[in-house]
Design a protein that fits this description.
Length: 249
């Protein structure tokens, strides 16, 4: 049995996920850096520190998920925190401008193949990974699940005609709406087990998801997911928040 608490962060080989992994390591966690490409994950784990290990994990591949869960049980014997960070904003070629991504994601023109690809990672991948890790999380003394969402998925904000960003509400944003619903569903389902499940909005962060058009740093973006991962027994469950407080559903 691993003496330190163990945290798994999906999509942690770069961007916000990597920063979340680094921050959790400073809080005394042994951190598992989930990465589709194991070599990239191993490089990232070295930057996190001695208590980090790479885990090959493709959230869209059930065999990969099952193998990761088995490895965590066999090598670490525990899992205390799961951060579902892996996400995609589109399924096309990288480097496309943000405005182009927004236009191609509109429901009137978005291809079903792209919609399915985005939901496969951002929604179904979260469900699949969470289900696979639940046997370990149920054994933890105070398990926490954090889903990295986005205020762009807020139905309340996007129903407001004065919101200047509502024109961006498309496939990616609606996948985050679905993720928020899944967060509430898991929170309700797991409350009796003492497992807290919350969604965090990292803000408009400079990552390859938006072709580095974001205005926030990964250090800023990681703060709210890490705070939710560290909630004590009095902390909430089934919430959606950013650094400034609750975000409307």
């Amino acid at each position: 049995m691993q003496d330190k608490p163990v945290a798994l962060v999906t999509g942690a080989n770069k961007g916000i996920g990597l920063q979340i992994a680094k921050d959790l390591a400073t809080h005394g966690f042994a951190v598992l850096v989930g990465s589709r490409n194991l070599e990239h994950g191993e490089t990232a784990a070295k930057s996190v520190g001695a208590d980090a290990r790479a885990v090959q994990l493709d959230v869209t591949n059930q065999a990969s998920i099952a193998a990761a869960a088995e490895r965590i049980r066999n090598q670490f014997g525990r899992l205390d925190v799961l951060v579902n960070n892996a996400g995609v904003s589109h399924a096309g070629k990288p480097g496309r401008p943000l405005q182009e991504l927004a236009k191609s994601g509109r429901p009137s023109v978005a291809s079903l193949a792209e919609v399915r690809a985005i939901f496969e990672t951002n929604v179904f991948g979260v469900i699949a990974v969470t289900q696979a890790m639940l046997p370990l999380l149920r054994e933890a003394p105070a398990a926490r699940i954090v889903n990295v969402s986005s205020s762009s998925g807020s139905l309340t904000l996007n129903s407001d005609p004065t919101n200047p960003h509502r024109s961006m509400f498309g496939t990616y944003s609606s996948s985050k709406t679905a993720l928020n619903a899944i967060t509430v569903a898991f929170a309700s389902d797991l409350e009796s087990a003492g497992i807290k499940v919350n969604a965090a909005c990292p803000g408009f962060t400079s990552t390859d998801l938006n072709n580095f058009a974001g205005t926030r740093t990964v250090e800023e973006a990681a703060r709210e997911p890490v705070r939710l991962a560290l909630l004590d027994a009095n902390g909430p469950t089934g919430t959606f928040s950013n650094e400034d407080g609750p975000v409307p559903w």
